[in-house]
């Protein structure tokens, strides 16, 4: 193996440039962001040294003591290794040595973890995924100090820690290592990086090409398959963030040790595209919480510190620097040093957040995530494929962010990560019974059953079709359709963001049209965040006993607060969120009900958050069109005790169906009218015409917009 | 009248120094904080000028269009007046002139406001309080430009705006003007400031001494009576903040025009003491939301910008500068300029937030607000008097803040201020039926009735007794008692904050002992903020139908989620708030239940926030002692996916009653023990003894603390 850093010896660092590391240390004081990392790492490692060596026999599941201790240890090995390279202080190499010698005593003795919950038992941890993560970090820390150890210690650690762990994760775990899955990526990266450190081509080749080295599995195959051509990861943003780190860190190792592989150019630069896309999957720095996601995950996370630094090293794209500024953190490595230095030099440029259509699937033909952005608002329409076991049954779901807040929400996952009292931090039963179910989302539910009847295998085989996308201008719009979610049912949804002068944020129009082979019940839920302040829909409240909405598929978790009957003028509700008003107005289909409910029923262990939802319901119909308008307006300033625009500025919302188009008319209180026309045809630029209030209107292509 | 600013003419400014204002303008650019105010005011006034004169005939209640427009107008008159003085630009005096001439057309024609809801109808606004606020601001704006107007305009505005409004608020409103109440303070200030501006000694004297000028009413009397000797305002922090402004601004006017009155030395400097106390009534800048309070009120409010600047002008106390830094705002006046200048000069010192006992009542003998502080935690025990019509029935209630968050909460008021759809922004029906009721607080409820049976007159006559207060050191403690809240029932409560090594925040011990002449039901609610993660108390959940807890006195608003029976070891619940765990552990009295409930029942208009509460309940007992321990522990970092200390560090909580003392023993998991002893005797330093686990312990005074 040739090494880009020119490490000639068989023990010098290969994952980091010794020279760059030394230089980072020498100049650290000039760059606050890097100096802070140095100080933080010193403090943490010194605290660990104070606490002494603790390498317990594995016992506890996630969140438990031995689990957390082994996590702390890999972090400490990693940090101390880097500190040694950066500062040259021997206390740090001594600490890495002591820890790894303790592991050399432990590792060879380990069998499957006693708390293992499934077939992918780890050794140090309850699942082998954590072992891979351990090894990715430990390999980096070890690489940094390896040439400071005696040949004897080095041999012992090589054999009894790294070879043992690499063998366990590769040859002994083919069911993980040869999968196409992010757990496999972690295992590939761990084994491959160990290979570089141990100068073992065999390990590297297995990592790149699978155990049989044919390329049917392994890291390159993961790069081919796990990301869509737009850099979207099938499981969604939460796991994309997590999956990204082994891709980034192993790619960097490959680049350093086998530059001839041009890994950052592989598949049109998919690693860098995946990094940029990961950043696009955020609002105000927080990831869209679709699928099994923890809602508190932001770009302020180790994976993204590394990704930003690596991408900046490879591309020099100064837009990445503004992300690092928001993060307020850099990695403690030469690539992080460069980020800190160039931010200090004032090179940061705004990151180009934009409306984007991110195709899903390895070939980009399995639906898409449609993101519509304006300066004040971000709309996400989830027209993606299922996304494996962590996917939710939420085809054609949508989310809205406005004014810095989540307004139309996604529950995320039902889980208290790393909190032992909540089933050891694992996914809770309510993740299946509520969080994954269709009713927990903002999309159509037919006959109180979830999409694909909640069956993962069926879901995996059927993706929605992204029919049209227009990002940019005063009318941004996305149309998608699916006919496989329910037998005999097709539904198509167009969501449009209309910028209207006088409004700080766009108005959002939602047209969902469903047809069913047999009469059915159609529910369209909207999960919103805020306090109801005006419920114009005539309704009856359940004041002294709240019934439960249904019996299964998530319905059993909803308390019914009130049931209303919207009419053509009493057709809206207004809520208040962080000083801004949101009016949700509907064109009620004949006989429609509006149900006001709250999550939390059938939840004996208080596992669910309690959040409001309103549901438009039509029963016993063969087809239905739900037309809704979400209007952000006004401002309530509690501190200054001032309020403006608390009333909706919309006087009427009208909907007409023509032979081949949908027409939505918004009449404003000031007399203006905005008309959105949506042709059934999605391709080409054929001309369509409708008559609106006796006046002919024509447009080319899928949609038209007429302001008068 | 002599004027401190040396205004010789009969039209020059008397409420602001013309020379200082000019100087502020000349040097503004050097001081960012002041320049920002100047820019903001310019922008706002210029927008108002753009929008044109709008002085509508009064019609709407609070939050309505005419209400908001007249509010904007007084703000604009005030700002434009100051801008004229600071910049010398005529466009600003012209604007004030035009607005006031429009008011000169309107004011003489006005009768009682058409939307008036009670006997204190205003003219421009639905209640005369708003008219007073209007006049306080308009007088300042007018004063600043008065010498720039023609004698004719001046005469017209003097007569048709200021004399009309001053007469309405004084001679024509004796029922307001002569009251002892903050509405009267506003009226006094408005009339008195108008008096200075118009050079009318008669108006000033009435403002200072009441309509009959005997001193039985008026501003000086308000100063005698409305604040306690510790500067605590009877209605509580929310209204204290609001009440403060007329005191401060009128005192400043008196000082400028009648310095011989030495108004800032009046009653041992009560105005300045009230300002300092107002600041003490906050956590993280937010006011304790006791009584009728909006929870989003912080020190970032106009009243406090003025108070801080005035106090700094009078005292030069540089601790006030750090408050202004937190506010990020200064008043657009010379006193605000001085604050901005001295902050820029680096003179700011930390404000001395401290444990404080704030006595209530004009003579300080009507209970007290006890505040216990440590660097990470603030505990408030509400042992005050009722505090008039905005008071809640919450004697011996407590609140806890920890780690930057509200942990043991107070609902505040049920009101959506200035939101028209919510009953015009007025107090909602639920303010009486829920927010004021005892069960909505963290204090004892007997037989499901509120304190004083919810009767304000009875409540006003009976205050709790603050028996003991120790602020400072490792054990801070407050003891209070009341025997008038329920006939035949006396209850005493000690709350202590115990600093324990190894804990970031203190542990809180709560001992509440009640005796009743007849057997009764005792409920002790705890309203907490966070998500339950461990409910160790054996309980039965109401999974599919939630009953309502009771029928009246607030109980009708609680849904019952579960009912539990704590035992001596299964006696705790743990919740998570912002990454920190809180374990609430009790020594269950014999037969005690623990009820888990949520607000929101019998709330057809969605007026209530939905918040959790747990209730310890003992039925059919003549006396009861509730002993509870609240333990903040551990850290959950969702971003880094790490968790430490999620389990309580307490192994056992024990309680013993001796002949004359309560003994609480906390046994930690690491084997340490902390014992708190509380003698019945609260005075003197008599020695008390108890035997604990066979070992004699003695202490002097009300309480003892023994760590072993
Ligand atoms: Zn979801
Ligand atoms: Zn209250």
Q: Nutshell version of this structure?
A:
The structure is a homodimer of 708-residue chains. Chain A has 708 residues and is of the alpha+beta class.
Describe this structure in words.
2 copies of one chain form a homodimer. Chain A has 708 residues and is an alpha+beta fold. The first copy, chain A, has 17 helices and 27 strands. In chain A, helix 3 (65-87) packs antiparallel against helix 4 and helix 11 (237-257) packs antiparallel against helix 12. The longest helix of chain A has 23 residues, at 65-87. Chain A is elongated, with a radius of gyration of 28 Å. At the A-B interface, strand 13, strand 15 and strand 21 of A face strand 13, strand 15 and strand 21 of B. The site of one zinc ion has 8 residues of chain A, from loops.
Q: Tell me the structural class of chain A.
A: alpha+beta
Number of helices of chain A: 17
Question: What is the gyration radius of chain A calculated from CA atoms?
Answer: 28 Å
Quaternary assembly: homodimer
- Give the names of the bound compounds: zinc ion
Chain-averaged pLDDT of chain A? 95
What is the 3D form of chain A?
Answer: elongated
Helix content range of chain A: 25-40%
Architecture blueprint of SSEs:
2 copies of one chain form a homodimer.
Chain A: H1 18-27, H2 32-51, H3 65-87, H4 90-106, H5 128-145, H6 151-169, H7 174-177, H8 182-198, H9 201-209, H10 219-225, H11 237-257, H12 266-280, E1 282-283, E2 286-287, H13 302-315, H14 319-327, H15 334-344, E3 356-359, E4 367-373, E5 377-384, E6 397-402, E7 405-408, H16 429-435, E8 445-446, H17 456-461, E9 465-470, E10 475-486, E11 489-498, E12 507-527, E13 531-535, E14 539-541, E15 558-564, E16 572-577, E17 580-587, E18 593-599, E19 612-633, E20 635-637, E21 642-644, E22 650-657, E23 661-668, E24 673-679, E25 687-692, E26 695-700, E27 703-707
Antiparallel strand pairs in A: 1-2, 3-4, 4-5, 5-6, 6-7, 8-12, 9-10, 10-11, 11-12, 12-19, 13-16, 14-15, 15-18, 16-17, 17-19, 18-19, 20-21, 22-23, 23-24, 24-27, 25-26
Helix pairs in contact in A: 1-3, 2-3, 3-4, 3-5, 4-5, 4-6, 5-6, 5-8, 6-8, 8-9, 8-11, 11-12, 11-13, 13-14, 13-15, 14-15
């Amino acid at each position: 193996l040739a090494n880009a850093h020119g490490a000639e010896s068989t023990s010098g660092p290969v994952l980091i440039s010794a020279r760059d590391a030394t230089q980072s240390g020498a100049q650290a004081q000039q760059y606050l962001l890097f100096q802070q990392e140095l100080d933080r790492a010193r403090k943490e490692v010194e605290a660990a040294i104070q606490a002494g060596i603790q390498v317990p026999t594995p016992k506890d599941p996630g969140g438990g003591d031995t689990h957390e201790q082994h996590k702390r240890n890999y972090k400490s090995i990693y940090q101390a290794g880097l500190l040694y390279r950066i500062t040259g202080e021997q206390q740090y190499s001594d600490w890495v040595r002591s820890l790894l010698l303790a592991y050399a005593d432990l590792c060879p003795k380990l069998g499957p973890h006693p708390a293992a919950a499934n077939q992918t038992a780890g050794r140090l941890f309850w699942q082998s995924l954590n072992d891979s993560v351990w090894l990715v970090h430990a390999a980096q820390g070890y690489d940094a100090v390896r040439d400071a150890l005696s040949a004897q210690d080095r041999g012992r650690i090589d054999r009894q820690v790294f070879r043992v762990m690499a063998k366990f994760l590769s040859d002994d775990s083919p069911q993980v290592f040869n999968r196409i899955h992010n757990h496999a990526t972690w295992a590939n990266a761990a084994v491959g990086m160990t290979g570089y450190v141990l100068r073992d081509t065999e390990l590297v080749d297995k990592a790149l090409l699978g155990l049989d080295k044919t390329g049917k599995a392994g890291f390159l195959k993961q790069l081919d398959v796990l990301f869509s051509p737009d850099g979207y990861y099938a499981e969604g943003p939460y796991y994309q963030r997590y999956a990204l780190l082994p891709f980034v860190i192993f790619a960097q190792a490959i680049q350093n040790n086998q530059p001839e592989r041009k890994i950052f150019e592989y598949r049109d630069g998919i690693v860098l595209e995946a990094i940029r896309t990961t950043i696009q999957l955020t609002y105000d720095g927080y990831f869209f919480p679709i699928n099994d996601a923890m809602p508190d995950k932001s770009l302020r996370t180790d994976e993204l510190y590394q990704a930003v630094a690596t991408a900046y090293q490879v591309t020099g794209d100064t837009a990445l620097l503004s992300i690092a500024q928001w993060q307020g953190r850099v990695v403690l490595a030469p690539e992080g040093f460069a980020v800190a230095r160039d931010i200090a030099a004032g090179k940061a440029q705004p990151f180009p957040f934009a409306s984007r259509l991110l195709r899903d699937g390895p070939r980009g033909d399995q639906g898409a995530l449609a993101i519509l952005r304006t300066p004040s608002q971000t709309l996400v329409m989830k027209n993606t494929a299922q996304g494996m076991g962590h996917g939710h049954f939420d085809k054609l779901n949508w989310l809205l962010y406005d004014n810095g807040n989540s307004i139309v929400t996604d529950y995320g996952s039902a889980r208290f990560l790393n909190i032992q009292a909540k089933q050891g931090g694992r996914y809770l039963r309510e993740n299946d019974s509520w969080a994954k179910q269709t009713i927990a989302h903002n999309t159509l539910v037919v006959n109180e059953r979830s999409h694909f009847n909640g069956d993962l295998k069926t879901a995996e085989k059927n993706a929605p079709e992204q029919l049209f996308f227009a990002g940019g201008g005063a009318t941004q719009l996305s149309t998608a359709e699916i006919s496989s979610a329910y037998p005999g049912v097709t539904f198509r949804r167009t969501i449009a963001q209309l910028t209207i002068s006088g409004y700080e944020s766009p108005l959002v129009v939602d047209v969902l049209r469903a047809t069913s082979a047999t009469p059915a019940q159609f529910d369209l839920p909207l999960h919103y965040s805020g306090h109801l302040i005006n419920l114009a829909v005539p309704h009856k409240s359940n004041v002294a006993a709240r019934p439960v909405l249904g019996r299964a598929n998530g319905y059993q978790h909803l308390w019914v607060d009130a049931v209303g009957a919207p009419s053509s003028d009493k057709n809206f509700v207004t809520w208040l969120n962080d000083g801004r008003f949101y009016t949700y107005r509907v064109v009620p289909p004949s006989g429609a009900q509006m149900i006001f409910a709250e999550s939390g029923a059938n939840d004996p262990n208080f596992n669910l958050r309690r959040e409001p939802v309103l549901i438009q319901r039509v029963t016993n119909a063969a087809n239905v069109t739900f037309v809704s308008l979400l209007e952000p307006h006004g401002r309530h300033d509690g501190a200054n005790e001032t309020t403006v625009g608390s009333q909706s500025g919309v006087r009427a919302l009208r909907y007409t169906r023509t032979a081949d188009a949908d027409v939505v008319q918004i009449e404003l209180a000031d007399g203006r009218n905005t008309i959105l026309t949506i042709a059934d045809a999605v391709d080409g630029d054929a001309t369509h015409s409708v008559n609106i209030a006796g006046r002919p209107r024509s447009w080319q292509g899928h949609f038209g917009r007429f302001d008068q």
